[in-house]
Design a protein that fits this description.
single chain, alpha/beta, six-stranded mixed sheet, two-stranded antiparallel sheet, about 20% strand, globular
């Protein structure tokens, strides 16, 4: 059995109700649920939530809510690994043999069915524990700066001051969209950001964290630009 799990806790403080807030014509979470269903990769698409309003919106969009997430996994400090482990354990305890699980974040409107397919393909072909979306930094991280007392500038890696940008190694970061993993890897809460994982490159113009209102506005501009380009061929 292959399952998509969309974690969607209630009680967002920086963007109240962000998981079901309207984003370009749909509740934010709808984009993740619909991409998962359209991919055809899953026997079931579920939402793990502690919030009845989120649960109702998720059902309307075609996801199932086989359980309500317990309180001890619904605070501000609970990470992704224990939430997905809880979902896997629920299926196993209900007598369902789970093979692969894909965590898809509720605030990932740029995710596509093709991304999900590629993640599953790479997970299988590589024999890895996890396969997840990554994107490149727009500027060499080796030339990063910090602002010290009084706004004084310091290089984090001053030894790289004279190195040409094109000679520095390209760096990547988690795109925050999806994480395919074996059921065993989720149950053991293995380290995702390590040698046991493979990265699925996503172009930067389809990656945006949505943690603040500024992030939200930026994501809307990007999303509408992509829709306009698609309409114009």
């Amino acid at each position: 059995m292959k399952v998509a799990v969309v974690p969607a806790r209630g009680g967002s403080k920086r963007i109240p109700g962000k998981n079901i807030r309207d984003f370009c014509g749909k509740p934010m979470i709808a984009w993740s649920i619909e991409a998962a269903r359209a991919s055809g990769c899953f026997d079931e698409v579920i939402v793990s939530t502690d919030d009845e309003k989120i649960a109702e919106v998720a059902r309307q969009r075609g996801a199932t809510i086989p359980f309500m997430r317990p309180e001890h996994l619904s605070d501000d400090y609970t990470g992704t690994l224990p939430v997905i482990r809880h979902a896997v354990e629920w299926f196993l305890n209900a007598g369902h043999a789970v093979d692969r699980v894909c965590c898809i974040y509720a605030t990932a409107p740029f995710i596509t069915p093709a991304d999900i397919h590629e993640g599953e393909r790479r997970l299988e072909s590589s024999g890895s524990s996890f396969a997840f979306s990554v994107t490149s930094y727009a500027f060499p991280i080796q030339r990063a700066l910090r602002l010290a007392d009084g706004g004084r500038v310091e290089m984090m890696h001053p030894e790289q001051f004279s190195t040409r940008s094109q000679d520095l190694e390209e760096a990547w970061h988690d795109a925050g969209q999806f994480y395919w993993g074996t059921a065993e890897a989720w149950l053991e809460e293995r380290m995702i950001f390590g040698r046991g994982s493979v990265g699925i490159p996503i172009p930067r113009y389809r990656v945006q964290d949505v943690d603040t209102l500024e992030d939200w506005e930026s994501a809307e501009y990007m999303f509408e630009a992509l829709r306009a380009r698609a309409r114009n061929g």
